[in-house]
Design brief:
By secondary structure, this protein is mostly helical. Helix content is about 70%, strand content about 0%. Strands 1-2 form a two-stranded antiparallel sheet. α5 packs antiparallel against α6.
Length: about 280
């Protein structure tokens, strides 16, 4: 009697077992790729902003930075929730951020703010923003903040967002037939100030400790903020951005004048060096 049917049955059973063993691995690989997809979307919107700014479509370019910021906030959160953080993801995110929050807003400010009228000075000011964003990201990767729940210096997404929402606000005023002409020296000063704030040691609130799952006040605040933004997004985003950018220097000056400095975190422990062995 032939054993072929039995062998085929066994081979099918082995294939099913192999598929079951490989399913968690495939699922894990898919979860690992999810944060990278958000980072890639962040990079795409940064590239989109550059193309639109050079084409003179400043409104679309500004929206590109806004969407890049949303993707940048999601990739890290998704990686932490899915426990798929990695060194590769950190490096990839930093490279994408340099494009989306360093190069893209500088090119937008250069063209929309007519910094080319300053010739070499306008070029240098735009490059200053890019260099400060790169330095800010490098410092963030290798050096934790000295204060709990604070960023050291203005975060680069916030600086880029300020450039974006300013252009959106100006576009809104012009659409409403409100004649507004932003002087080029004011644009240059604003871009330079944002760059210097990024590399400064002024602490900014991070809001990473806000627990939306268990804090009723945080949920109410988010709902109210969303309602305000939906009402008139271009005005609301500009006001929120300006308040956040100003909050760092204002709070720092208040703490210096009132004598209430922030409590610094203890420095990280140095790695132990192995004891020298006797010859």
């Amino acid at each position: 009697m032939s054993d072929a049917p039995f062998e085929r049955h066994e081979s099918r059973r082995q294939r099913r077992r192999r598929r079951r063993r490989n399913e968690p691995r495939r699922r894990r690989r898919g979860v690992y790729l999810l944060p990278q997809l958000f980072t890639t979307a962040n990079l795409f919107f940064g590239f989109y902003t550059i193309v639109q700014a050079q084409a003179g479509n400043f409104f679309n370019a500004s929206l590109g930075i806004v969407f890049a910021g949303i993707c940048d906030g999601l990739d890290g959160r998704v990686a932490r929730l899915s426990k798929t953080t990695s060194k590769f993801g950190l490096e990839y995110d930093s490279l994408a951020d340099i494009v989306s929050f360093g190069l893209a807003p500088a090119i937008l400010a250069f063209h929309a703010g007519h910094l080319e009228g300053f010739r070499r000075s306008g070029f240098v000011i735009a490059f200053l923003f890019v260099a400060c964003a790169a330095l800010r990201l490098a410092r963030f990767n290798v050096h934790t903040s000295r204060y709990s729940g604070r960023f050291e210096g203005l975060p680069s997404p916030a600086a880029a967002g300020m450039v974006s929402v300013t252009q959106l606000f100006v576009s809104f005023l012009r659409d409403e037939q409100i004649g507004v002409a932003v002087p080029e020296p004011l644009v240059a000063a604003g871009v330079a100030a944002l760059g210097l704030l990024m590399v400064s040691a002024i602490p900014y609130r991070s809001f990473k400790g806000v627990d939306l799952r268990h804090s009723y006040r945080a949920i109410v605040g988010m709902v109210l903020a969303l309602a305000v933004v939906i009402q008139e997004p271009q005005i609301a985003l500009f006001v929120i951005g300006a308040l956040y950018v100003a909050s760092g220097p204002v709070e720092w000056a208040w703490r210096v004048l009132s004598g209430r400095p922030l409590e610094e975190l203890p420095p990280p422990a140095a790695p132990e060096t192995p004891a020298e062995t006797a010859p």
